[in-house]
């Protein structure tokens, strides 16, 4: 052998000072706060929207569509990262609302949320606003 006791190296690697890696749960990466004002339901979304968190947001959006509100505002101003999974989800929900009594409006601005929607041309498909106040009008 090479003169080293392998058990020494194994104990260093597996020692208590090496924590097990842990992926954050979707609930730690994404926060959705609901606000109901008369017939408008606003989902204030904060954190990361990616392949891990998009399914959780999909549940929130599905519940919002079933709430009976005539207007659903999806506020993305607190989003720090918007991946393709989140963009696809917005497009899918927009398609659902086309035959639904609920109208969806998206609040997105800046390089994280507004710019990707603009670059992809989705600001022409989605009803995109720069603020929640503007989306409520």
UniProtKB/TrEMBL annotation:
Pfam families: STAS. Residues 1-11 have a biased composition (Basic and acidic residues). Residues 1-21 are annotated as: Disordered. InterPro entries: STAS_dom (IPR002645), STAS_dom_sf (IPR036513). It comes from the Bacteria. CDD domains: STAS_anti-anti-sigma_factors. Residues 30-137 form the STAS domain. PANTHER family: ANTI-SIGMA FACTOR ANTAGONIST TM_1081-RELATED-RELATED (PTHR33495), ANTI-SIGMA-F FACTOR ANTAGONIST RSFB (PTHR33495:SF13). This is STAS domain-containing protein.
């Amino acid at each position: 052998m090479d003169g080293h006791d392998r058990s020494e190296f194994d104990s260093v690697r597996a020692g208590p000072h090496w924590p097990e890696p842990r992926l954050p749960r979707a609930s730690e990466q994404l926060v959705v706060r609901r606000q109901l004002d008369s017939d408008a339901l606003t989902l204030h979304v904060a954190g990361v929207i990616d392949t891990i968190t998009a399914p959780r947001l999909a549940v929130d959006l599905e519940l919002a569509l079933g709430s009976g509100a005539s207007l659903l505002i999806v506020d993305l101003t607190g989003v720090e990262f918007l991946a393709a999974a989140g963009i696809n989800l917005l497009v899918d929900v927009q398609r659902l609302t086309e035959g639904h009594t609920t109208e969806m409006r998206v609040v997105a601005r800046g390089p994280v949320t507004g710019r990707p929607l603009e670059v992809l041309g989705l600001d022409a498909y989605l009803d995109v606003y720069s603020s929640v106040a503007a989306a409520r009008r």
